[in-house]
Hints:
alpha+beta, Rossmann fold, 2 domains, seven-stranded antiparallel beta sheet, five-stranded parallel beta sheet, 17 strands
Amino acid sequence: xxxxxxxxxxxxxxVIIDAVVKICKLENYTVDAALTVKTAIEKISKNYYxxxxxxxxxxxxxxxQILDQLQNKNIDSALIMMTGYSTVENAVNSLYQGAVDFIxxxxxxxxxxxxxxRANKYQEIKKKQEELSRKNIGHSLLYxxxxxxxxxxxxxxxxxxxxxxxxxxxxxDLFLKTIESVxxxxxxxxxxEIAQGVSCVTVKSADDxxxxxxxxxxxxxxxxxxxxxxxxxxxxxxxxxxxxxxxVIPNDIGYEIKNLVPYSSDRL
Length: 268
């Protein structure tokens, strides 16, 4: 295999491809492109791309075919889905099936670069973990897995249902490792509504990148973690317990849970 580019962008709109190429070049990524699923599959079969950015809906197929292609051929590219609001449920499902992220269309420069940055860090962590495993020290995890009874949305956020029916929401440690450090958190307020797969909190990392966190469930926020507001270090020191973000009354957890991954699958 040759390695002509860092990123493969797949979209049937040339204007989107041009935007991705232009934006990614700002951080010196090299980008290849495909206007159809068929062309993309041919390129993936011949070349290795560390990151694949793919529109979820294409005239000759969809992003799930690209996911299948990568998984069936054991190609370890990190896949980022692009989606319009009307296909958010499909995009959320893509996280369940193995995509590392999805971004909205139209996207901003910051949204795309932040997503690509995290995907690149995800690849670095995965390769380091594989190296530890080859050296028979696989027990030395580079991140902390979700505890028992927790469910996660991709590798970004988690939820835990309490006895009273409310749900706690927080950030997965793997996601925190991809952004490296937390500088600021922009919270929503109690009584605001959130939706699964839609941004519910914004985190700024020490390098001033902005990362929008996708909510694992839909519902109404009834409590914001005041201790976390006072001490942002909690989210990195104890992301699954003291570092939770919101307590939420879920709208339809029975339906949305199908897109969430159980803790037992919390492995790279």
